[in-house]
Amino acid sequence: MAAYLIADTLLTDPALYEEYKRQVKPLAETFGGEYVARGGALMVKESQLWSPTRVVVVRFASMDDANRFYESDEYQRLLGISRQAARRTVLIVEGS
Q: What is the pLDDT of residues 11-28, one digit of tens each?
């Protein structure tokens, strides 16, 4: 069953975040990730629990694949850039 890595990102250093974006997309693709949404237009219809700002959705073939990507040494190195350039909420959810 497919899985979706969803990240909501508030940029604090947009220039540095560009470096993260440049490196993360090809890495996610090596783990079978396919970007479904990447910071496009956003329409919030309800926000009692969560008020998203910039949403990224990456589809993987399975929860295991998504987790392998996130936990990989390569991605953990990139997280250092992301954490300097943004505040984020990241989750992985099973889907179809």
A: 999 999 999 999 999 999
* Domain of 45, in residue numbers: 3-94
User: What is the reported pTM?
Assistant: 0.93
Instruction: Find the CATH number of the domain harbouring 9.
Output: 3.30.70.100
**How many structural domains is the chain composed of?**
1
CA distances from 1 to 4, 27, 31, 63 (A): 10, 21, 15, 8
Q: Which residues are CB-contacts of 71 (< 8 A; sequence separation ≥ 6)? A: none
**CA gap 75, 68 in Å, rounded:** 9
Residue for token digits 């990241």?
Answer: 90
Q: Residue 90 in contact with residue 2, Cβ under 8 Å? A: no
Nearest-angstrom CA–CA distance, 10 and 13: 9
